Amino acid sequence: MTPSALEAAALHLLAARRHRRPGARLPEASRPATDEEALAVQRRVALLLDEPIGGWKCSLPTPEKMLLAPIYAATIAKASPCAVPVHDSWARIEPEIAFVLAHDLPRRATPYAEADVRAAIGETRLVLELIGSRYADPAAIPFPEMLADGANNYGLYIGPVVPHGVDRALDAFPIAIHAPSGAILARDGAHPDGHPLRPLTWLANWFGGNRAGWNQGLSAGQIVTTGSYAGVLDVPLATPLTVTFGALGRIEVTLIPVG
């Protein structure tokens, strides 16, 4: 990917972010063909946007793809009602477990062990990833272009702390969603990578390789979310929702259309 193509891709996505208006896919000459090129576009968007990164989303890589993206502090919400994009009159969410770092995990040559990462975690939180793309037709977008745009992330809604979270069973538990009218969903939830701590450990070590221009590590105060326990869920707007994470707790939130 040439420098001019990378710049054109970043400017295209930056405009869609700033206007909060999904648009066309990237121009053909500016489309990343690999995950590394996509991550370079991500990095350039972050530099041009010049907003604090409040967290990250990631999952363990596979031979076919790598998934990680910054979550900007301005898109992380803690108060209800919470504004979200509209998808065919629905909000789109993913119920997840996230970790808030109490200590930095800076880039270093020696790999982090899981115990190192555990020691850096300050809180375990119930969260909802808020799904929203800068493309008008995200289902038609090849993976590298989706990754360049931040892997369909619009933001994050932060729920309550899970007491002693890193010491509890976080591999699987029931997910249920209720509204005043009754049950919306009941499903046996499972983490796609077996445990949410595994992708966090991978991410801390990925930064050590200075990949695609991301030359920092993880910082205290950032929150990292690592995969949905129930996939992408369409839920009603302007409706009080209770999302229950088994015995770990629940999130109560009303989602409203973003202005």
Structural features, described:
The structure is a single chain. A hairpin with a 4-residue loop joins strand 12 and strand 13 (250-257). The strands form two sheets. Strands 1, 2, 3, 5, 6, 7, 10 and 11 form an eight-stranded mixed β-sheet that branches. The protein has 259 residues and is of the alpha+beta class. It is built from five helices and 13 strands. The chain has helices at residues 3-19, 35-49, 114-120, 143-148, 197-206, and strands spanning 53-59, 67-72, 76-77, 82-84, 90-101, 121-131, 153-161, 172-179, 182-190, 223-228, 233-236, 240-245, 250-257. It has a single domain (53-257), classed as Alpha-Beta Complex (Fumarylacetoacetate hydrolase, domain 2), CATH 3.90.850.
